[in-house]
Amino acid sequence: xxxxxxxxxxxxxxxxxxxxxxxxxxxxxxxxxxxxxxxxxxxxxxxxxxxxxxxxxxxxxxxxxxxxxxxxxxxxxxxxxxxxxxxxxxxxxxxxxxxxxxxxxxxxxxxxxxxxxxxxxxxxxxxxxxxxxxxxxxxxxxxxxxxxxxxxxxxxxxxxxxxxxxxxxxxxxxxxxxxxxxxxxxxxxxxxxxxxxxxxxxxxxxxxxxxxxxxxxxxxxxxxxxxxxxxxxxxxxxxxxxxxxxxxxxxxxxxxxxxxxxxxxxxxxxxxxxxxxxxxxxxxxxxxxxxxxxxxxxxxxxxxxxxxxxxxxxxxxxxxxxxxxxxxxxxxxxxxxxxxxxxxxxxxxxxxxxxxxxxxxxxxxxxxxxxxxxxxxxxxxxxxxxxxxxxxxxxxxxxxxxxxxxxxxxxxxxxxxxxxxxxxxxxxxxxxxxxxxxxxxxxxxxxxxxxxxxxxxxxxxxxxxxxxxx
Length: 470
What we know:
Largest sheet: 10 strands, mixed
Number of helices: 18
Shape: elongated
C-alpha cells in the first residue's frame, strides 16, 4: 500500500510554507491575525494582573491596620432570667491571649453601650468633623498598636521634640502614645480640620451632640432667647481636650482614629466595661476559619460572639472578585475577535491553495493530514501572538504608573484615585495560573476557529479541486 510522505512533520512543514509572504494578501491577513491574538493576550494579562494586584494589596492593607478579629459580648443575653451568667472580660482576655493561634488579645472600645458605632466630633478652630475611633490600651504586647505604628506620617524635616502648652512632649513626626489624653487621626482628616501634630483638639461625644441638636430643634422658633437658653441648660455636651499626638497615612491605614481606652469608655458611656476584645491572629488570611474553630471548641462564652476583618470588608472583597470575573468575560470577546481573524486567514488560505489540496488528496493524503496543515498554521499564528502578547502585556505593566501619570496630565483626571483605592500606585500581581488560562484559551480558540474551514477543505473532491484550481 502506498504510504504518504506527509507524516507527522509534513503538515507543519507545509503550514510554515503557506505562512511565508507572497504577493497575495495572505501574509497581511496573517499579520493581522497575530496582532489580534497579541492584543487579546496583552490586554488580558494587564487587566488580570492589575485586578489580582489590587485584590492582593487591598487584603494586605486591611490586614495591616484592621483588627483581625473582634470578640464582643452579645449583651442582651447576659443577665436575662435563665440566660448565661455575665462574663468577666478580664478573665476572658487572659484565656484568649494564651491560645496558640492568638498573637495578642487587647480590650477595646469602639461602640457605645447601646451598640452604636463609636463616633467622636473633633473640633479645631471652629472646624468640626466626625470620625470613627477605637479606644485601646498602650501595652507592649498590643500587636494591633505595633502594626499601626508603621503607618505614622513621617516628616521630611526630621523628628524633633517640643513641649506643647499642656507641658507634654510632642514629636514632629508623631509618637503613637495612648497613655494620656491623646488622639491619633489620619493625615487627611487632620488636614481637613486644619490640625497638626501637637495641637490640642476639643473632642465631643457624638451622642451628647445629637441630644443637644435634637433638643434645640424641639424649641419653638418664636421662643425668646432666655427661654431657649434655659431649655438647653439641661443638655450637657461631653467634651474633652485631647492632644493630637500623631497622624497616620490614610492611604494605608484608613480613616479611623485612635484614643486611649479610658477616654473611649468615658465618651461611649461604658464605665469600666469594654466593647470587645481585639485579637491579632497568627493566620489572619484564614480568620473566619480560625474564629469558627475557636467558637466551636468552647473558647468563647455563649453570650459572646465574634466578627472578623473578612466579614467587615467582605462586600468590598467580593465586589473586587466579581469585577475581575466580569472583566475576564468582557475581554474574552477580544480573543473571540482574534479567533475570527484566524478563521478568516484559514478560509483564505484554503481557497487559495484549493488546487494543492486536490493534488495532495489525489496522492493519498488523508483528511486528518490536510486538517493538520491548516490547524498547524493557526497554531503557529496563535503561539506567535501569545508570545508577543505576553511581552507587550508585561511591558505595559512595567510602565503602568507612568502611563497613569501621563493620562492624568493630559485629561486632568486621576484614573486610579488614591482616596477611593487607598493605594498611591497601581498594583499588579501576575499569577502563573492566570497566565496558563489566558495562553491556553487563546491557543484553543484559534485552533477551534481553524478547525471548521480546514475540515471543509479536507473533504474537497480531488477532481473538482484540480478542475477549479486549474
